[in-house]
Amino acid sequence: MYQRLTNEKSIFHLTKRLKIIADFIQLGDIEEINKQVQAVRELNLEYICSSIIEALEQAQYDHAVQQINVLLNRYSEVLMFIDPEIAALQLELKNLQERLSEIEQNKQNMYAIIRTYRIEKYKRLTPVESAIIIAKHKFYFQKMQHIQAKATTSGVDNTVELEQCQKLYEQVTYEFEQFEKRKKEDENYYNESRRTKGKSSSHLKTDTTMDETMSEMTKLYREAVFQCHPDRFSEDDQKQLAHNICTRLNNAYAQHDWDTVRLIHEQLKLGLLAVNVPVDNAKKLLRLERDALRQQFEMRAKRYKQIYSLNEQFLTIVPTQNHVTPYLERMEAQLHDELADWNRQIEEFNKKDLIVAVSNNFIDSQQCIKRDWEYLIKHPLENIMIDPINDDDLYHWQGIFIGPNDTSYKDGWFLVQIDFPHDFPKKKPMLKLTTKIDHPNVTTEGIMKLCNDQSWSSHDHLRSYLLRMYQIIFYPKVQSDHNSSQSMAIQQFRNDRTTLDETPKRWTDTYAVLYNTREKYIQKSD
């Protein structure tokens, strides 16, 4: 019995030496190979590995590696036969690793489908969806005007119908706001995907748990590094094994892979680097690794199930990436049909020309302005305060635009004036900024020329006009120079992004700070 145990330990050391020799063959380190061959001879097991030693001495390294693999496979089976529990643990570990690999592959495939869908959806469907929202918005606004005009001409009380239409209009307005948020998210995702194309998907969340705090993991990491540092060992094979473990530990710590850090720490405590590992400890090491893999598998399986359940309906229709394009083609065709239907309804209003006719014949410009004023009071706009200078004169308005917090115009109070033409709403109002502002589409006189001709129709109303002008002022689009007189400023905005941030902020602090502009506005209001 004693002789058998001695032989088993010798074979254990022999297999470790042969593994190290195979590694040094790959590195091409002849000197280390010769040292390890001498160490193998000292084990007095040449009757087992004589062909390997002979191949190494004759520099037949490929043949030696083949013989080493044969021997390792042979004695791996013997060890499994000697201790059935170790064999069972090793088999379970292999099974868990395969299941982990399978679920990870399934997860990556699912992410790939979702990623492809989101990117292609943004490119193909977003423009059509945007056009539909705009068409719906325009349709319900025209319908409200049509109902009001009909009530004026016929004298019929259609308050209920008008309120229903207003609710639909407000609902579409809310849909538009939500759509813009989703569009921004999809745009950011699309740009990030293009930026990381061909690289690892670092933007995807991993399944690494963060149950332990950083300080606790740092403590375990330092203890483990101390135990597996290569300088603590004298034998070359132990140094090499320690180096491999230390590298794995450092990588896990850098990637915040706390499960691996914890596992290596526990393995080191059980004698992973000991020269003679007791059988019981060897079993404990295998059980420890098995339990860690079980926990990891359960966690990833649960996470995969959660993600799949959230996208189950979509993934049932689009099970692979090859199904994405046909699915989007069907969706795109449906959206184009919907857009055509809305445009057809709008065209019917335009053909009848009821709104324009009623505006010309029955509702004078003052009534239109008053109607828009009342609607603006009921539905105020954020960061916009404006009303007539004199209640007896509805054609001249004054107010302020407050700069948004996410722009260089933050904290600025910008005085604005609006002059209405006497044939409003056939002709657009004119907006002018009386507070100096550094802007590519505002003249030095404060006149807005951007989109003044294209962005107004007799169907528009004051609230949408104010919102549109507010967006143009504080979120300038410098891709096209609508204002030729400001072409130099536009070119500067294009070429110098620093100017886009710094100069407007400096001008805002100088001319539109709260305590200056606010007092001027209050004085004029008084």
UniProtKB/TrEMBL annotation:
Under the heading PROSITE patterns, the entry gives: UBC_2 (PS50127)
Renumbered to this chain, the signal peptide range is none
Q: Which UniProt keywords apply?
A: Coiled coil
Which residue stretches belong to region Disordered? 185-209
Q: Name one Pfam family in it.
A: UQ_con
Q: What residue stretches are annotated with the UBC core domain?
A: 364-513
SMART domains to which the protein is assigned, alphabetical:
UBCc
Stretches of Basic and acidic residues bias are at 185-195
Q: Check the record and name the SUPFAM superfamilies matching this protein.
A: Chaperone J-domain, UBC-like
Coiled coil ranges: 86-113
- Put simply, this protein is called UBC core domain-containing protein
